[in-house]
Amino acid sequence: MSKTTPSLLVQGYEVVIGFETHTQLTTRSKLFSRAPTGFGAEPNTLASAVDFALPGALPVMNKGAVQRAIEFGLAVNAHIAEQSVFARKNYFYPDLPKGYQISQFEIPVVQGGMVEFFLDGEKKSVRLVRAHLEEDAGKSLHEDFIGQSGIDLNRAGTPLLEIVTEPDMRSTAEAVAYAKELHKIVTWIGICDGNMQEGSFRCDANVSVRKPGAELGTRREVKNLNSFKFMQQAMDYEVRWQIEQIEDGHAIQQATVLFDPDTGETRSMRSKEDAADYRYFPDPDLPPLVISRAWVEKTRSEMSELPRVMAARFMADYGLGDYDAGQLTQSKATAAYFEAVAHASKQAKLASNWVMGEVSRRLNAEEKLIEASSVSASQLGALVNRIADGTISNSAARLVFDALWTGAGQDVDTLIDAKGLRQMSDTGELEKIIDDVLAANVKNVEEVRAGNSKAFNALVGQAMKATKGKANPAQVNELLKKKLA
Fold this sequence. Notes:
This protein is of the alpha+beta class. It has helices spanning about 65-75, 170-190, 230-245, 295-300, 305-320, 320-330, 330-345, 350-365, 375-390, 395-405, 410-420, 425-440, 440-450, 455-465, 475-485, and strands spanning about 10, 15-25, 80, 85, 85-90, 100-105, 110, 115-120, 120-135, 140, 150, 160-165, 200-210, 220-225, 255-260, 265-270, 280, 290. The strands form four sheets. Strands 1, 2, 3, 7, 8, 9, 12, 13, 14, 15 and 16 form an eleven-stranded mixed sheet that branches. The chain has a three-stranded antiparallel sheet with strand order 6-5-17, with no helix packed on it. It has a two-stranded antiparallel ribbon with strand order 4-18. A hairpin with an 8-residue loop joins strand 10 (about 140) and strand 11 (about 150). Helix 2 (about 170-190) packs antiparallel against helix 3 and helix 5 packs across helix 6 (about 320-330). The two termini are about 60 Å apart.
């Protein structure tokens, strides 16, 4: 079960969500043919005899797809089956020329596993049932034809890894957080490019509601959610719709539904099939898929550091908390940027604050990835150094950061001097200014000695004003306390 606090109830109902995610694997060719995988080509130009289901054309397994399935299994601590079986999933649709889809049913290649993530600072976990290899179907085209449809088989046979969860999620926010974490994992290890608009990462949400403690409710499957924004909207609507139906005395019918982003509503597409409806049976054209332990261990040794492992290292090496380490490992690029800043500044926590703060804020505002940051890691490292050694204050550092971001200068020290932001380092000069402030504010001095903390803050403000903000606030506080003792 998901590690959750008691479930958040919606109008007295508990929300139950499970996910099925189709991740398109990053192989150059299809799952059972040598036809190329690609996006945007002219219809039916990336399909072979196997994809067209021409008589006598036989499938041949793509080893690269198996390799990527192994990598995913290792990334989520799953069991990699030494032997798995391909099956025929029988259904009839125009974009499925064979009349069946080659998939895996009873014995999938990846079994079990766990995806962990944070939501509002709380650690969550979602159990995986399985991840199995299967081929994609083609695509029906309706827009360019009057009274008829066209079929494009470019996608037919494209390798997919379908990742199925237990119904562990108890809110739509938790479900979206899971989807984002899964997206991070598959893109991090490089098995999927994660492009949701092109269909490389497609999520189906199985949504149901129930009264607390009751049996699981009837689920409706919301298909092909291709953005996190629409995913949230679709599930929120579906939850409200199901509750309204139950409250009005109607039973929920198991169904497959689509989300219409224009109306913000889901609509039923067809009744939901069960496994028996597909008449699965082992594909006689494909032998069992055998994966040796040596292959698994070789893959394990060659994989790059995983997000959860890197996050643990950040906590151990840099003294960061769970949340910071998780945020900084949202992508390889973010993690690399942070480490470069931390190494340049030797101030890991301060570096973390700036990467998650000012840098992220600017990137989000301009809809940029961190690879396109206008402030390099070396520049931010130099800036963090100047904050840590007391050369500039935090407020002055933001001015320097703004100038770096807009390209006003490339050198941190030059910008500090050009803008006159260097903090006062002459203790004697600062003491003289403080003496003048105390002499000019006798009433405040008397109030401080009488125990009024607000009066002390007023003296700090006067001292900072007298130094035109160039004094180190901590030093001002220390000197004032000393002189007022």
